[in-house]
Amino acid sequence: MPQTVKGAVVRAKNAPVEIVDIVIPDPGPGEAVVDVLTCGVCHTDLHYVHGGVGDDFPYLLGHESTGVVSAIGEGVTNVKVGERVILNWRAVCGECRACLKGQPQYCFNTHNATQKMTLTDGTELSPALGIGSFAEKTLVAAGQCTPVRDDVDAAAVGLLGCGVMAGVGAAINTGQVQRGESVAVIGCGGVGVAAIQGARLAGATTIIAVDIDQAKIDQALRLGATHGVNSREQDPVEAIRALTGGFGADVVIEAIGRPETYEQAFYARDLAGRVVLVGVPTPGMRLDLPLDDVFGRGGSLKSSWYGDCLPSRDFPMLVEQYRLGRLDLDAFVSERIGLGEINEAFEKMSKGLVLRSVVEVAK
Residue 363: which of 59, 49, 44, 39 has the closest Cα? Predict the structure, then answer.
């Protein structure tokens, strides 16, 4: 039988988030219903509110989650009822050209649930990133569920579902940071700090945090950076070069998504170094770089999609790194809130007051 639960919905562009009744259908073939435990408040959800992702309103927000599988549909074998899972938005298809090349982390045809969750009047909801987990329950494709151990803090490990994975993966997977290398991270919000933690986990010995906010730099220094650069007070390119023997960093991770900071990243790397763009640009932004510099500096310019992660591989591994004390996920949980506090959490996030507000659904 379909179930009626509470969920956070935005009905129109820039409208306030409302907590309303939503209807969750029984899972069909290849689908699972998940009882949501926690969900981080991510910038992507705010992009949905502002119409930056599309206009397929109403949206059921939320995507950075842990939960417990409560029902599965026909043919589901990767998860069982009662398992703790982290939800992901890369449920690989196994059939597209990326998957067939052995690169499922780039899957171009990821799965979502076929059925729609609805309002009580039958209006179909568009779930954020195919998940929609600012809700007591959600319906997803079973492949969006990654089983993980259940003896760790759900609020902390749930952040691997999006922002933390994006940052850690930008360093480890996309940037392929090696032991002893130097890394600079431009932009020290949640994703940037996660990239710093990823660089530390990979064995980088010089990790430079760059931001215009000294409080964010200080926080990054507490969480793994070895040096801080306030780019409001000094030229970040020259500062990064000065901290790397005059050459530039082996890897520069741009975690803002703006042309001017990307240009800084481009010139702050060493010859044959790597630039990784993990910050999400606004549609229409353009970049102007001299082509002879692109050629002459060598190396690689990469974009990091979801930290180029494979959830089935990366989530359990990073949960284990957290359990062993090598990855500080607790530091990302700035506050624990209830469903009714999401609008206030968006305001705090926009002002840079938190790394992550985490909704605990039962709160």
Answer: 39
Q: Is the pLDDT of residue 18 over 80?
A: yes
> Does the pTM of the predicted model rise above 0.90?
yes
User: Is the distance from CB of 183 to CB of 204 less than 8 angstroms?
Assistant: yes
The answer to whether 50 touches 30, Cβ cutoff 8 Å, is: no
CA distance from start to end of the chain: 26
- Residues 244 and 277: their CA atoms lie apart, in Å, by 21
E-only strand ranges, 187-314: 206-211, 227-230, 249-254, 269-277, 300-303
- Is there a contact between 334 and 16 (Cβ–Cβ < 8 Å)? no
Contact 250, 181 (CB under 8 A): yes
Place of tokens 């409080």: 215
pLDDT of residue 352: 87
The answer to whether the beta carbons of residues 197 and 169 sit under 8 Å apart is no
Phi, psi of 71 (to 5 degrees): -160, 145
Residue 201: Cβ within 10 Å count: 17
């520069």: which residue's tokens? 252
Instruction: Kindly state the tokens that stand for 156.
Output: 């902390």
